[in-house]
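As a warm-up, study this chain.
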Amino acid sequence: MGISGASALDREAKISLAAPWREGLETGQTNVVGKMYYTREHGEGYGFGSGRLGIRTPSPEEPRIHPAVHQEPGGWHPASDRGPHTLQFDQRSDQNYAQRLGLIPDQESKPERKHPYRAGAFLGGLIAVVSLWALSLRRLVRVRTKDLREANARLIRSQEDLHHVNAELVATVQELSTTADELSRQYQELQKMESRLLREKDLLRITLLSVGDGVVVTNSEGTITMINRTGERLLGFHRGSAAGQRFCRLFPKKECAFLKKVISGEKAIRIDGMELVSKEGSRLIAAGNISPIRDVQGELRGAVVVFRDISEAVRQRTEIEFLSFRDHLTGAYNRRGFSREMSRLDQENFLPLSIIVADLNGLKFINDAFGHAVGDQFLIRASHILEKSVPERGIVARLGGDEFAVMLPNTAGEQARQLLREIRGLAKKEAVRSKQISLALGAAVKERPEQNIQTVYNTAEKAMYTDKISAGPGKRAVDLLVSILFADNPGEKEHAHRVAELGKMTALALQLPSEQIEELYTVGLLHDIGKIAVDTTILRKGPLLNRREEAELKRHPEWGYRILRGCRDMEAIAAGILAHHERFDGKGFPRGLKGTEIPFYARIIAIADTYDNIAQERGLSGPQEASKKLREEAGTRFDPDLVQVFVEKVLPQLHKEREH
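Now compare it with the structure written out below.
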């Protein structure tokens, strides 16, 4: 609706309406004053409208009509449907506008005429417009309020949905955070486990490489994949050179077969007494086990062989067993081993079972004369004679000292007696230091199961003693000792035989019994037997001896006595040998006996020994000088009665025999 003219009512309204928005506004500022309609003169104007009021001065080139309004025939009309309207002013427009409002008197204008009806009409129209505007505004507000409520409801629902989504998102985030924490913890645990496994693997590797036993690891095809240093050393390989080798090329066939069984799925197999040959050719005895290697799924991946060198242990065990059942000197069974074998062979399927008992003659003399080292050689040689004679199935044992025993399963009496003859024949061919081996032998046979085997053994032992005595009391021992004494010193042999012959002649002159004559002859033959224990260098020096050497030589009567005192029925002979350097006046040695305290045999041998020594040293004049020496020392050094018999009866007989 257009507005033209300027009634008083209009002016008042314009003033009342213009005052608020004009007051305090500058060019380009805006204010809100409700709804405004305006007219324009000279390109300027004012108006009311909903929205903002803008004031600015247009440029000369800019058209005077604001884009917010349009011109139609009959005047300016509001463009209320185009949104807020902006009024444009310049200084001239502002002045014109103030004049129209009555703020500045219009000098050219004349006082207007009052029209009361127009004011009423204007006011009524204004009220109507305002009412319509209010109704429209109310409807618009109601519509807009409804839309706002719906929008607000939708917004609330969206907010609720967003709240639920946000809650779910928060829960998901929390769950993801918890999962992330758990994964982080598990990752840390895995790292720790991996680190621990690496340490354990390294420790296991170091342990395998450092362990004292040999360790060989193979794959499922039997190829060596790892070997520690001990294994390389035992097999003779340089470091790392054994890897890739075939197990069966390095180990015996039996152990190779064991490995194949283990790789095929069998359980661990123990190996004992495995003989290995190193690359350098050295041999050793090994023991250990072969075990399968399975992964976590239980699948067989190979095998591990752990072995150690037991060569020393086997040697010690063999030695212990040998010492338990074998004689350490001869290698034959000892008494314990013989008893075990006797129990084993005391079965009917071994009948007839022959037992031979043997005794080495003169071992006591040999040990006392030459020492136990020489005696041990006699024992070893005697054992070899028995083992050489006895068949392979026979058992040879040294029961102790000089006693041996032989058991012959499935051997009859005649075969046993033939074996005795073979043993004696071999003994005659064997010698130690040119001294013949002498054995006393006896045999017995178990032919029936009810016979006691110990009784059979006792029978064989009695037969052995019978054989020992049948050669005469001490005869074999004496022969053996004489051969030992004279083997390295022919001069002593001749001297001993001459002294023995002189002693026998003295016994005949005294008309002694034959038994004493024989014993006196033996004393003369063995009177220097103790010299066996004297250093040969001293014997060869003759009379040029120092005090120490002379003192050692004077001990030969004691050593002779020790050699013979343990022999059966030779006590008198041993006593005569011990005292043959005693003096009748008590100034002799070794005990300083006097007169008849000196054994009878010793007093005779002392005279015979001195005579032969002087007679042999002085040549042709020796017998006369020796006879003279005996008469001079009769009663001091020698028994005077025996000297008289020796000079008056023995020497004439001796000269007669030499003349013939």
